[in-house]
Amino acid sequence: MQKEIKTISLSLPFRVGSVNCYLIATDAGYVLIDTGGSNSRQELVSELERAGCRPGLLKLILLTHGDFDHTGNAAYLRTAFGGEIAMHAADSGMVARGDMFVNRKKPNLIIRMLLPIFSGFGRLERFAPDLLVADGDDLSAYGFDASVISLPGHSKGSIGILTAGGELFCGDLLVNTDKPVLNSLTDDLAAANASLQKLGSMSIGAVYPGHGGPFPIEVVSRS
What we know:
Blueprint lengths: L1 E10 L6 E9 L2 E5 L7 H10 L7 E5 L5 H4 L2 H8 L2 E5 H9 L11 H11 L11 E3 L12 E5 L8 E5 L4 E4 L2 E2 L5 E2 L6 H11 L6 E4 L5 E2 H5 L2
Parallel strand pairs: 3-4, 4-5, 5-6, 9-12
Antiparallel strand pairs: 1-2, 2-3, 7-8, 8-9, 10-11, 12-13
Protein backbone atom coordinates (compact mmCIF):
# COMPACT_ATOMS: atom_id res chain seq x y z
CA MET A 1 0.00 0.00 0.00
CA GLN A 2 1.26 3.46 -0.90
CA LYS A 3 1.77 5.68 2.15
CA GLU A 4 3.13 9.00 0.91
CA ILE A 5 4.86 10.77 -1.95
CA LYS A 6 8.00 12.82 -1.33
CA THR A 7 9.16 15.16 -4.08
CA ILE A 8 12.94 15.53 -4.33
CA SER A 9 13.83 18.48 -6.54
CA LEU A 10 17.46 18.37 -7.68
CA SER A 11 19.40 21.22 -9.26
CA LEU A 12 20.41 20.97 -12.90
CA PRO A 13 23.87 22.20 -13.92
CA PHE A 14 24.50 25.87 -14.65
CA ARG A 15 21.28 26.96 -12.92
CA VAL A 16 19.06 25.93 -15.80
CA GLY A 17 16.32 24.64 -13.52
CA SER A 18 15.66 21.45 -11.62
CA VAL A 19 14.55 17.88 -12.13
CA ASN A 20 12.16 15.95 -9.92
CA CYS A 21 12.55 12.54 -8.36
CA TYR A 22 9.65 11.02 -6.44
CA LEU A 23 10.11 8.77 -3.43
CA ILE A 24 7.11 6.65 -2.49
CA ALA A 25 6.95 4.94 0.88
CA THR A 26 5.09 1.62 0.87
CA ASP A 27 4.56 -1.22 3.33
CA ALA A 28 7.27 -3.14 1.47
CA GLY A 29 9.87 -0.37 1.50
CA TYR A 30 10.48 2.47 -0.96
CA VAL A 31 10.00 3.07 -4.66
CA LEU A 32 11.94 5.84 -6.42
CA ILE A 33 10.75 7.36 -9.68
CA ASP A 34 13.72 8.85 -11.59
CA THR A 35 17.12 9.60 -10.08
CA GLY A 36 18.36 12.97 -11.33
CA GLY A 37 21.78 13.58 -12.84
CA SER A 38 25.04 12.40 -11.35
CA ASN A 39 25.99 16.02 -10.60
CA SER A 40 23.40 15.97 -7.78
CA ARG A 41 24.23 12.54 -6.35
CA GLN A 42 25.11 13.57 -2.81
CA GLU A 43 22.06 15.83 -2.64
CA LEU A 44 19.85 12.90 -3.63
CA VAL A 45 21.46 10.49 -1.17
CA SER A 46 20.99 13.00 1.65
CA GLU A 47 17.32 13.43 0.78
CA LEU A 48 16.75 9.67 0.64
CA GLU A 49 18.35 9.12 4.02
CA ARG A 50 16.48 12.07 5.53
CA ALA A 51 13.24 10.44 4.39
CA GLY A 52 14.20 7.13 6.02
CA CYS A 53 15.20 5.34 2.82
CA ARG A 54 18.43 3.65 3.78
CA PRO A 55 20.42 0.87 2.09
CA GLY A 56 18.30 -2.25 1.80
CA LEU A 57 14.97 -0.42 1.92
CA LEU A 58 14.86 0.78 -1.69
CA LYS A 59 12.96 -1.90 -3.60
CA LEU A 60 12.42 -0.42 -7.06
CA ILE A 61 13.96 2.36 -9.17
CA LEU A 62 11.59 3.36 -11.98
CA LEU A 63 13.00 5.39 -14.86
CA THR A 64 10.42 7.28 -16.90
CA HIS A 65 12.85 7.59 -19.84
CA GLY A 66 16.52 7.36 -20.72
CA ASP A 67 17.74 10.96 -20.49
CA PHE A 68 20.76 11.41 -18.24
CA ASP A 69 19.11 14.01 -15.99
CA HIS A 70 16.68 11.24 -14.97
CA THR A 71 18.92 8.16 -15.04
CA GLY A 72 22.26 9.53 -13.82
CA ASN A 73 22.17 7.98 -10.35
CA ALA A 74 20.35 4.74 -11.09
CA ALA A 75 23.38 2.43 -11.29
CA TYR A 76 24.91 3.97 -8.17
CA LEU A 77 21.69 3.61 -6.18
CA ARG A 78 21.28 -0.01 -7.23
CA THR A 79 24.72 -0.77 -5.80
CA ALA A 80 24.55 1.43 -2.71
CA PHE A 81 20.88 1.06 -1.73
CA GLY A 82 19.69 -2.08 -3.48
CA GLY A 83 16.55 -2.18 -5.55
CA GLU A 84 15.88 -3.20 -9.13
CA ILE A 85 16.02 -0.75 -12.03
CA ALA A 86 13.02 -0.76 -14.35
CA MET A 87 12.46 1.10 -17.62
CA HIS A 88 10.95 0.64 -21.08
CA ALA A 89 12.92 -1.40 -23.60
CA ALA A 90 12.84 1.37 -26.23
CA ASP A 91 15.00 3.65 -24.06
CA SER A 92 17.22 0.98 -22.52
CA GLY A 93 19.83 1.43 -25.25
CA MET A 94 20.45 4.98 -24.02
CA VAL A 95 21.75 3.78 -20.66
CA ALA A 96 23.40 0.64 -22.03
CA ARG A 97 25.49 2.69 -24.48
CA GLY A 98 25.72 5.93 -22.52
CA ASP A 99 24.15 7.73 -25.47
CA MET A 100 20.99 9.83 -25.17
CA PHE A 101 20.63 9.87 -28.95
CA VAL A 102 19.94 6.18 -29.41
CA ASN A 103 16.65 6.02 -31.37
CA ARG A 104 16.80 9.80 -31.87
CA LYS A 105 17.93 12.13 -34.62
CA LYS A 106 21.63 12.43 -33.93
CA PRO A 107 23.48 15.76 -33.77
CA ASN A 108 26.93 16.05 -35.28
CA LEU A 109 29.81 14.16 -33.71
CA ILE A 110 31.38 17.18 -32.00
CA ILE A 111 28.13 18.11 -30.22
CA ARG A 112 27.65 14.50 -29.14
CA MET A 113 31.14 14.41 -27.65
CA LEU A 114 30.81 17.74 -25.88
CA LEU A 115 27.25 17.32 -24.58
CA PRO A 116 28.13 15.32 -21.44
CA ILE A 117 30.77 17.90 -20.52
CA PHE A 118 28.72 21.02 -21.08
CA SER A 119 25.53 19.55 -19.67
CA GLY A 120 27.44 19.05 -16.42
CA PHE A 121 26.09 15.63 -15.66
CA GLY A 122 29.52 14.17 -14.99
CA ARG A 123 30.72 10.72 -15.99
CA LEU A 124 28.10 8.66 -17.81
CA GLU A 125 27.66 5.30 -16.12
CA ARG A 126 26.47 2.63 -18.48
CA PHE A 127 24.16 0.00 -17.05
CA ALA A 128 21.45 -2.46 -17.93
CA PRO A 129 18.03 -2.35 -16.27
CA ASP A 130 16.88 -5.35 -14.28
CA LEU A 131 13.32 -5.12 -15.58
CA LEU A 132 11.87 -4.01 -18.89
CA VAL A 133 8.37 -2.71 -18.28
CA ALA A 134 5.55 -2.10 -20.74
CA ASP A 135 2.09 -0.60 -20.90
CA GLY A 136 -0.24 -2.04 -18.28
CA ASP A 137 2.40 -3.68 -16.09
CA ASP A 138 1.31 -3.96 -12.45
CA LEU A 139 3.73 -2.76 -9.74
CA SER A 140 1.90 -4.16 -6.72
CA ALA A 141 4.60 -6.80 -6.18
CA TYR A 142 6.73 -3.93 -4.85
CA GLY A 143 4.04 -2.72 -2.48
CA PHE A 144 3.15 0.03 -4.94
CA ASP A 145 -0.49 0.00 -6.06
CA ALA A 146 0.23 1.45 -9.49
CA SER A 147 0.68 0.51 -13.12
CA VAL A 148 2.88 1.49 -16.05
CA ILE A 149 1.52 3.59 -18.91
CA SER A 150 3.37 3.85 -22.20
CA LEU A 151 3.64 7.57 -23.07
CA PRO A 152 5.88 7.93 -26.14
CA GLY A 153 6.61 11.37 -27.50
CA HIS A 154 9.44 12.93 -25.54
CA SER A 155 11.27 9.70 -26.31
CA LYS A 156 10.18 6.39 -27.79
CA GLY A 157 10.44 4.62 -24.45
CA SER A 158 8.85 7.25 -22.23
CA ILE A 159 6.48 5.87 -19.60
CA GLY A 160 4.22 7.21 -16.90
CA ILE A 161 3.23 5.66 -13.60
CA LEU A 162 -0.44 5.84 -12.56
CA THR A 163 -1.40 4.99 -8.99
CA ALA A 164 -4.70 3.50 -7.90
CA GLY A 165 -5.43 6.85 -6.26
CA GLY A 166 -5.12 8.70 -9.57
CA GLU A 167 -1.68 10.27 -9.19
CA LEU A 168 0.22 10.33 -12.47
CA PHE A 169 4.01 10.56 -12.69
CA CYS A 170 4.38 11.65 -16.30
CA GLY A 171 8.15 11.94 -16.78
CA ASP A 172 8.93 14.57 -19.42
CA LEU A 173 5.76 14.23 -21.49
CA LEU A 174 4.44 17.31 -19.67
CA VAL A 175 6.38 20.04 -17.87
CA ASN A 176 5.29 22.81 -15.51
CA THR A 177 8.18 25.25 -15.43
CA ASP A 178 5.84 28.12 -16.36
CA LYS A 179 2.49 26.45 -16.94
CA PRO A 180 1.51 22.82 -17.63
CA VAL A 181 2.26 22.09 -21.29
CA LEU A 182 3.62 19.40 -23.56
CA ASN A 183 7.39 19.41 -23.35
CA SER A 184 8.87 21.47 -26.19
CA LEU A 185 11.83 19.05 -26.26
CA THR A 186 9.87 16.26 -27.89
CA ASP A 187 11.13 13.66 -30.34
CA ASP A 188 7.73 12.94 -31.89
CA LEU A 189 5.03 15.59 -31.46
CA ALA A 190 2.31 13.41 -32.97
CA ALA A 191 3.12 10.62 -30.52
CA ALA A 192 3.18 13.10 -27.63
CA ASN A 193 -0.26 14.43 -28.56
CA ALA A 194 -1.55 10.87 -28.85
CA SER A 195 -0.17 10.13 -25.37
CA LEU A 196 -1.92 13.20 -23.98
CA GLN A 197 -5.16 12.12 -25.63
CA LYS A 198 -4.70 8.67 -24.10
CA LEU A 199 -4.50 10.23 -20.63
CA GLY A 200 -7.83 11.95 -21.25
CA SER A 201 -9.59 8.58 -21.08
CA MET A 202 -8.12 7.75 -17.66
CA SER A 203 -9.10 8.69 -14.13
CA ILE A 204 -6.29 11.06 -13.17
CA GLY A 205 -6.12 13.68 -10.44
CA ALA A 206 -2.75 15.24 -9.74
CA VAL A 207 0.06 15.09 -12.29
CA TYR A 208 3.67 14.96 -11.06
CA PRO A 209 6.01 16.05 -13.89
CA GLY A 210 9.74 15.60 -14.31
CA HIS A 211 10.22 19.37 -14.20
CA GLY A 212 8.07 21.80 -12.21
CA GLY A 213 5.38 21.40 -9.60
CA PRO A 214 2.33 19.11 -9.59
CA PHE A 215 -0.89 20.23 -11.24
CA PRO A 216 -4.42 18.92 -11.92
CA ILE A 217 -4.82 17.10 -15.22
CA GLU A 218 -7.75 19.38 -16.12
CA VAL A 219 -5.38 22.31 -16.56
CA VAL A 220 -3.76 20.56 -19.51
CA SER A 221 -7.01 19.14 -20.82
CA ARG A 222 -8.46 22.65 -21.19
CA SER A 223 -5.36 24.14 -22.85
